[in-house]
C-alpha cells in the first residue's frame, strides 16, 4: 500500500512566510512539517509515498529527494497549477494504485501526533469506500464536518467532529466521483449518505496549520516532547 501527502497548496494565509518557502517545509519541532508525516508513515510500515506539488514544488523535491535518508521511497505528482484535493488524488491515482486498490491520504498542512499504524494495517471492508480520522472541533471550525455513530461517519445524527485530513480511501471512491467534481469533501459526503464511510476519533494533538498563530501552536506542541 502507498500513501499520498497533499502538498500543492499556495499557503496564502501564511504569507509572507510562504512566499519563498512552501507550507509543508515550514519548520515545526526542528524539522519540516511534512517530515512528521513521512516519519509517521515509515513507522507504520508505509514507506512508499506520493507527494503532489505545485507552488514552489521544486523546493520540496530538493529538500526531500527520493526519501532514502528518511527510510521512505518518495515519488512526485507535479501539477503545475495546484489542483483541488480530489483533482490531485485523481491525477496521482495510477501511482497510488500500483500495489493495491487502497491508499492513505494525508493533508500536508496539518501537524498531529496521530499514530498511522492501525489505519495502515486495517483494510476497508467490502461495504466501505473510506475510513476517516476525526478530531474534536477546533475554535476556527466549531461546526465540524461529520458525525460519528457506532464507527460509521454520517451527517444525520450524533456528535459533529472535524475531518482531520487523514484517511484511508479506496480507488472505488475516486472512480465513482463525477468527472466535473474536483473536491474530495462532496464525494465523501455522498459516500456517507450511502453508509460507505467508517471512522474513528483522535483525541490527541492535531493542528490545522493555516495561519501564523496555528503554526506557533504546532511548534509549541512539537517542542513539548509529547509527540512521537
Automatic annotation (TrEMBL):
Domain of life where this protein originates: Bacteria
Keyword Nucleotidyltransferase: yes
Keywords from the named record: Nucleotidyltransferase, Transferase
Ranges that cross the membrane: none
Keyword Nucleotide-binding among record annotations: no
Cross-referenced InterPro entries: GlmU-like (IPR050065), MurU (IPR054790), NTP_transferase_dom (IPR005835), Nucleotide-diphossugar_trans (IPR029044)
Gene Ontology molecular function: nucleotidyltransferase activity
Domain Nucleotidyl transferase span(s) in chain numbering: 2-121
Pfam family, one: NTP_transferase
Protein name listed in UniProt: Mannose-1-phosphate guanylyltransferase
Organism: Halovibrio salipaludis
Amino acid at each position: 500500500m502507498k500513501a499520498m501527502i497533499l502538498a500543492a497548496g499556495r499557503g496564502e494565509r501564511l504569507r509572507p512566510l510562504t512566499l519563498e518557502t512552501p507550507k509543508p517545509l515550514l519548520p515545526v519541532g526542528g524539522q519540516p512539517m511534512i517530515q512528521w508525516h513521512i516519519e509517521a508513515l515509515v513507522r507504520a510500515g508505509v514507506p512508499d509515498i506520493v507527494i503532489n506539488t505545485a507552488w514552489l514544488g521544486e523546493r520540496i523535491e530538493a529538500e526531500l529527494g527520493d526519501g532514502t535518508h528518511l527510510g521512505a521511497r518518495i515519488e512526485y505528482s507535479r501539477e503545475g497549477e495546484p489542483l483541488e484535493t480530489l483533482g490531485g488524488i485523481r491525477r496521482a491515482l495510477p501511482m497510488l494504485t500500483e500495489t493495491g486498490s487502497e491508499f492513505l491520504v494525508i493533508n500536508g498542512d496539518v501537524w498531529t501526533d496521530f499514530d498511522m499504524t492501525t489505519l495502515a494495517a486495517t483494510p476497508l471492508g467490502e461495504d466501505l469506500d473510506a475510513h476517516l480520522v476525526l478530531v474534536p472541533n477546533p475554535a476556527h471550525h466549531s461546526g465540524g464536518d461529520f458525525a460519528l455513530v457506532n464507527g460509521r461517519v454520517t451527517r444525520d445524527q450524533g456528535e459533529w467532529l472535524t475531518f482531520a485530513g487523514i484517511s484511508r480511501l479506496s480507488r472505488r471512491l475516486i472512480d465513482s466521483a463525477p468527472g466535473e467534481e474536483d473536491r474530495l469533501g462532496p464525494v465523501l459526503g455522498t459516500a456517507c449518505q450511502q453508509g460507505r464511510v467508517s471512522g474513528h476519533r483522535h483525541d490527541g494533538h492535531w493542528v490545522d496549520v493555516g495561519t501564523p498563530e496555528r503554526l506557533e501552536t504546532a511548534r509549541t506542541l512539537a517542542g513539548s516532547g509529547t509527540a512521537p
